[in-house]
Amino acid sequence: HDGTAGSLEGDALVDAVTPMYDDEENPDGAFVRAVLEGRPATPDLWTAVEAHRIVDAMYASAAEGGAAVAVEVGQQ
Predict the structure, then answer these.
(1) Residue 13 above 90 pLDDT?
(2) Are residues 24 and 56 part of one domain?
(3) Domain that holds residue 50
């Protein structure tokens, strides 16, 4: 399922996202541990910014009745 059509809910949604789960139940705690251990946190800043830009485009699309919204990715 590539996410371009249809929807998932319930057990089907859990089954679809489980392979993406990285065993970290508290992402805030993971960030703090990374800082304390002096290692890079994940996601990095640019990945987080890109994710927020995509979510912003999703909200803009919803506000326009599902219209396509261009997102320029990869800009730092």
Answers:
(1) no
(2) no
(3) 43-76
